[in-house]
Amino acid sequence: MSLGLRLLRVPATVAMLGLLFATIAPAAMAQYQAFQLAPGIGPSFRVIGTGPGATITAFVPSIETQYQEPLATVILQATVRSLALLAGVAVFALFVGVLVGIAAALVRRRAIASGAVLGATSVVAAVPSFFLAYFLQILFIFIGGAAGHSVLPVFGYGLDSHLVLPLLALSAPAVAATAQLTAVRMGEVFDADFITTAYAKGLLPSWIIKVHVLPHVLPVSLEAVGGGLRIAVASLPIVEYILLWNGIGFVALQSIALRDPLALTACAIVLGSMFALTSLLLDLRRARFH
Q1: SS3 content of the chain, % helix, strand, coil (to 5)
Q2: Which of 90, 144, 236, 275 could form a disulfide with 249 if both were Cys (CB 3.0 to 4.6 A apart)?
Q3: Buried-state track 188-224, b at ≥16 Cβ within 10 A, e below 16
Q4: Taking the mean position of all CA atoms in its chain, how far away is CA 136?
């Protein structure tokens, strides 16, 4: 497929997704009542008038009235929060996944050690991100209770220690996939003739890994990180909801609860764009190295 067609797929996918949600969302939302998603997010009541003649009426806010900001501002701010989280996931998954993969490759001839590392990554990959987020939240609540003080924030947004739990929850599948593919590819490279020759010349193992092995391994690792990022985007709404990270996924769930089709369509376009751009970057990288 040519570069132009690859680039064209992104706006085409986003346009189709926006059209689909703009068409279906209003009719679908008319079939249910607005509901309470979280404290302060959902239907409420308004008092009209004063004194004995005052009346109380049900009120379902939109995303704009919920945040008291224009919809474009809400979507932009939420997108930036989610992108900050996904950028952290990519860096964390690449760094930790490659290190774990290197460790597994170095002990590949030790069946128990190698099997333990790859088995642990397989277990981590099998656990859904939303379950891991909930488990970590409960775990650190108990740890904080035992310690008598908060160890890590268990909910809320912030580019500080608030990042830790959502980062761990979302990056776990990406770390596991990166470690497994890195270990397999690294094992293949270690068994190659040119690596045997490098050892025979007396080169240091650290130099061999840095100069001769990693250039052959990193393309595979980057592709694994990209695949993990797609899983992270798909898991974003539930993880953000559990940890109250006010990103684009959480706003999408709020839009469903408040029956706001315009906001939901905007969120779907943003999430679809993230997914499509990740796929595009993977395609371009694959084409470059193949």
Answers
A1: 75, 5, 20
A2: 236
A3: ebbeeeebeebeeeeeeeeebbeebbbeebeebbbbb
A4: 16
Structure tokens that stand for 82 in this block: 């989610």
Within 13 Å and on the Cβ side, how many CA atoms surround 188? Answer: 8
Q: What is the pLDDT along the chain (290 residues), one digit of tens a residue?
A: 566 777 787 888 889 989 999 999 999 999 998 888 877 787 776 666 666 666 666 677 889 988 889 999 999 999 999 999 999 999 999 999 988 888 888 887 776 777 787 788 888 888 889 999 999 999 999 998 888 888 889 988 888 899 999 999 999 989 998 998 888 888 888 888 888 888 888 888 788 888 888 888 888 888 888 888 888 988 999 999 999 999 999 999 999 999 999 999 999 999 989 888 887 777 776 655 55
Distance between CA atoms of residues 159 and 88, nearest Å: 10
Q: Which of 213, 234, 222, 238 is nearest to 285 (CA)?
A: 222
Residue 65, token pair as written in the block? 């009235």
CA distance 146 to 9: 52
Contact 41, 66 (CB under 8 A): yes
Query: Any idea which residue has 């008598």 for tokens?
Result: 148
Query: 147 burial class (0-12, 13-18, 19+ CB within 10 angstroms)?
Result: exposed
DSSP collapsed to 3 states, 97-127: HHHHHHHHHHCCCCHHHHHHHHHHHHHHHHC
